[in-house]
Amino acid sequence: MGKRSVYDAEPIPESARAVIDEMMETGDLFRYTASLNDPSPVTLLEKEFAAFMGVKYALAVNSCSSAIYLSLKAVGVMPGDQVLIPAWTFAAVPSAVVHAGALPILVEVGANLRIDMDDFESKLTDSTKAVIISHMRGHTSDMDAIKTLCDFYDVPLIEDAAHSLGTLWNGQKVGTMGTVGCFSFQSYKMVNGGEGGILLTNDPDVYAKSVIMSGAYEHNWAKHMTDDVPFEKYQNMFPLFNLRMSNLSAAVIHPQIAEVDGRVAKGLKNYEYVEAKLNNSPFIEVPKADAREVRAPDSLQFNLIGFDDAEAFDVMEISRQRGNMISIFGMQGDNARVFWNWKFIGNVPELPMTRAMLKRACDIRLPIGLSVEELDQTVDFILTCVADAKNTSDVKLCG
Q: Measured between alpha carbons, how far is 120 from 130 in angstroms, rounded to an integer?
């Protein structure tokens, strides 16, 4: 498969070392030890990320899951409320809804890995109090139609853009189209912080509530250095959940922001190279990008064509035995991205469209740092495993 493992994360820039070394000497890891006139590394990260994304406010927290949870609380979701979410997302999304005391309403996702708009429109009602759109694995659903419907029903739109840093929709950055956008800095994302997340919004009330609930006790919200935000209005009005990011995480993440555009360009080039080769196979379909979307991929998904369950399972087993398992979401018993594994939501609905997609949708990481030689090896590996599972040699490998 090549020298670089598909499980390798993006490297940490050397420029982070000096800041980290100083923190190790001083032990100054808590964001709120900073003075009012001396921004902490977390505050500096928030300022730069907000500017990079073109929004007013950013709040760094300990995970994207926390950002989603805070978003739900800040837009006014109450216990018992209905929240629409895609039926294909990571378990952290329905978990955030459950933590907020709300009821997740699952929406079908099609073979193109995007929300089915007919099902979405049928389930968006006056009872819906928020919508979470997960741009799962970087695949963007029809944000024009979704935003129009959310605006019509006056429903807050929360973007789970954990996999979409750098993606554009009609030229606008994904994660900036809704009321709130949430991003991940977990190691297998475009920016590698080990863990961490960030919340973006242009709404000063949503931002104020989120900052306070994230753990800005007493008047520590002043250290976020933001103007025209009604923090005092919400002082002591919300519980503290203490979901803060540490200075150490911010020091690791901060220097990577300048590298995002370059990583996005390299990731897209790699993706399109592999996509073109895989789509020559009669057994593989890589879902096409929407014409309104410019992707920022760091993983690859493709559908198996003409496979039964046994053959699909063999793809996973053959690839696992050869050292780099090709996951099929719905063929793994404990995959956290499979809706029927979300027992904690209560009555799990039957969603035939999503179930069929998950039974044939394959998933493999495509690290940005792979060379052309390694990309060819990856393509050959995939095609060979698929061919052997289908018990045929009628698949053209890379020359």
A: 13
Residue type, 258: A
Contact 130, 159 (CB under 8 A): no
The 10s digit of each residue's pLDDT in 300-332 is: 999 999 999 999 999 999 999 999 999 999 999
| Nearest-angstrom CA–CA distance, 272 and 384 | 20
Query: How many residues comprise the chain?
Result: 399
* Amino acid (one-letter) located at 82: Q
pLDDT tens-digit profile of 128-156? Answer: 999 999 999 999 999 999 999 999 999 99
383: left (phi over 0), alpha (psi -120 to 50) or beta: alpha
As assigned by CATH, the class of the 260-389 domain is alpha beta
Express each pLDDT in 154-195 by its tens digit: 999 999 999 999 999 999 999 999 999 999 999 999 999 999
pTM of the model: 0.95
Tell me which residue has tokens 């493709």: 302
* CATH number, span 16-258: 3.40.640.10
Q: Which two tokens stand for residue 194?
A: 């080990």
φ and ψ of 14, to 5 deg: -60, -30
